[in-house]
Amino acid sequence: MTETGQIIVGIFFLVLVYIFTRRAHGWRMKRALDFILKDLEKKDAVDHASAVRLPYATSMFFRMGTRDYRPKALEYLVSSSLVGMTEDGRYYLKNKGSKVSGRS
Fold first, then answer.
1. Domain-by-domain residue ranges, the chain?
2. Containing H/E element for 45?
């Protein structure tokens, strides 16, 4: 194989790896969003009075293992008004039974 061919194959594989990592990141974020919504439903936190504390609401600085997507997913849910947050840091579902921004 010529040098030009090797460069083209290398660039092709780099593009494939980039696309795969973006898909994997999106998939893990969706799983974190679904986990949080199901967790709040399971704990029956559906209004301001029944709000609960979530241990994964803040990210730990020195965490061992793979990346935890739950703090960012929770931040997204609060900013998109699917999950509410009380003044003392407890969380509850605002719109029970709704889906996350067009995803099924």
1. 3-93
2. none
